[in-house]
């Protein structure tokens, strides 16, 4: 039996794949069977360079023995511990370690199992916080066009993706949206943060005038929007949002599911942009994608507002069976060790200029209409084939895979986010492959 036959399932039918064109995939599957460092291996034995950290999550690269050992030891020592009214040491240690990576004042952490749960948790904390302070009329949530905040009803309500809004009904009531900040006519081919568009934050003032601040609980934004095609915050934009929120007593939530854990070359976008939100949602890089885990970091002021009333009362009526799972906690602690011991955030920061130059070297390739980058994120926006949106980028995705490179596409935008262990030689391989492929798909 060939290796490929030994590792191929004989029934692809039963599994309903997420966010996937099931029939297309099943007619020509791309099956990954192992991973180490910067590379996957597929069922045919071909090495596939990981240009996307899995789905923006494997920031420490694949198969680090420190994480593998921590997980195996933990599952043998204690596989599970109840999360309600009981505790285990590692999760307290993890909360202290993660909050210790934030500026002081962001001191508490709630645990979830995914980015979607983190978003719903943060929105619920925001609502419950205002209520706990006797300001319960603040129930309105503000998101942003082209925002992605996962797939829960809260997340799709504050998110700004038309396919969700078309498909899944009326969603949460009392939600409004800021405009997105993608201004290609002014900012195309910017290196790093774009110059134009800070004034788009003033739209929050317009929403305050429309709804009145006393009805608004929170604003949620991704500091850098990832999923909808890498949309960067114009210079001064996040600072302005913070100012307007402060002025009106509105909480600011940063969804750092993608930007957290070194993606921008600093621990979090919070530090990178020097803007301090009230709540931060996390997932993905928390465990380098190894075991599902997410979390919400919140300010001391928010936590303290709940710690009133009789001390036998549950302060926040929320949680999951797997909030703070011991195996995930062990994975996260070992992941933080990898980041620290190997200086991976600093590394990402050091290699980011090389990344930026390599990305922008594609400027003259046919059909490239924009290139955007920040930290170890890159986006290549392609001109859609007339009448066939998404087709050009998807063909590029298939051709890259054939040539041993994994990229992500959304619409006609290619998004790149390699593990933070990426070397210059990998960056060369990524952009050499893309240059060849983009000429072929032209
Ligand atoms: N918030 C943000 C900002 C995200 O990017 C979520 C929440 C939801 O996380 P979970 O763990 O529930 O999936 C995300 C997820 C892509 C891609 O290719 C992005 C995500 C997930 C899968 C693919 O852009 N982001």
TrEMBL record:
Required cofactor(s): pyridoxal 5'-phosphate
Pfam families found in the cross-reference section: Aminotran_3
GO molecular function: adenosylmethionine-8-amino-7-oxononanoate transaminase activity; pyridoxal phosphate binding
InterPro entries attached to this UniProt entry: Aminotrans_3, Aminotrans_3_PPA_site, PyrdxlP-dep_Trfase, PyrdxlP-dep_Trfase_major, PyrdxlP-dep_Trfase_small
GO BP annotation list: biotin biosynthetic process
CDD domains: OAT_like
Family: Belongs to the class-III pyridoxal-phosphate-dependent aminotransferase family.
Protein name (Swiss-Prot/TrEMBL): Aminotransferase class III-fold pyridoxal phosphate-dependent enzyme
The organism's taxonomic lineage, starting at the top: Bacteria, Pseudomonadati, Pseudomonadota, Alphaproteobacteria, Sneathiellales
């Amino acid at each position: 039996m060939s290796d490929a036959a030994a590792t191929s399932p004989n029934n692809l039918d039963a599994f309903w794949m997420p966010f996937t064109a099931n029939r297309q995939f099943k007619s020509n599957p791309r099956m990954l069977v192992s991973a180490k460092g910067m590379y996957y291996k597929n069922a045919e034995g071909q090495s596939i360079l990981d240009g996307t950290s899995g789905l923006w999550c494997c920031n420490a690269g694949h198969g680090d023995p420190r994480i593998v050992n921590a997980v195996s030891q933990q599952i043998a020592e204690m596989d599970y511990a109840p999360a309600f009214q009981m505790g285990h040491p590692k999760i307290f240690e993890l909360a202290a370690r993660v909050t210790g990576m934030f500026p002081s004042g962001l001191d508490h952490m709630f645990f979830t199992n995914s980015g979607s749960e983190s978003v719903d948790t943060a929105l619920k904390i925001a609502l419950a916080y205002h209520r706990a302070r006797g300001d319960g009329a603040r129930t309105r949530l503000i998101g942003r066009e082209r925002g992605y905040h996962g797939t829960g009803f809260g997340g799709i309500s504050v998110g700004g993706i038309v396919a969700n809004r078309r498909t899944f009904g009326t969603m949460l009531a009392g939600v409004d949206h800021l405009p997105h900040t993608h201004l290609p006519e002014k900012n195309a081919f910017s290196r790093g943060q774009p110059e134009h568009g800070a004034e788009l934050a003033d739209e929050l003032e317009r929403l305050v005038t429309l709804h009145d601040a006393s009805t608004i609980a929170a604003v949620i934004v991704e500091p850098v929007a990832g999923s909808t095609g890498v949309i960067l915050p114009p210079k001064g934009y996040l600072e302005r949002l913070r100012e307007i929120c402060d002025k009106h007593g509105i909480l600011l939530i940063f969804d750092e599911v993608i930007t957290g854990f070194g993606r921008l070359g600093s621990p979090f976008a919070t530090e990178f942009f020097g803007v301090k939100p009230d709540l931060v949602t996390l997932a993905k890089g928390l465990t380098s994608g190894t075991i599902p885990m997410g979390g919400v970091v919140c300010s001391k002021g928010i936590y303290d507002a709940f710690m009133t009333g009789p001390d036998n009362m549950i302060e926040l009526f929320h949680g999951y069976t797997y909030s703070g799972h011991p195996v995930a906690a062990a994975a996260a602690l070992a992941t933080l060790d990898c980041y620290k011991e190997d200086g991976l955030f600093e590394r990402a920061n050091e290699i980011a200029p090389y990344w930026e130059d390599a990305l922008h070297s594609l400027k003259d390739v046919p059909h490239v209409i924009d290139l955007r980058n920040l930290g170890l994120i890159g986006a290549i926006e392609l001109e859609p084939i007339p009448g066939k949106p998404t087709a050009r980028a998807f063909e590029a995705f298939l051709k890259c895979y054939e040539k041993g490179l994994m990229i992500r596409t959304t619409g006609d935008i290619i998004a790149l986010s390699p593990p933070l262990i990426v070397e210059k030689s990998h960056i060369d391989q990524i952009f050499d492959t893309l240059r060849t492929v983009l000429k072929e798909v032209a």
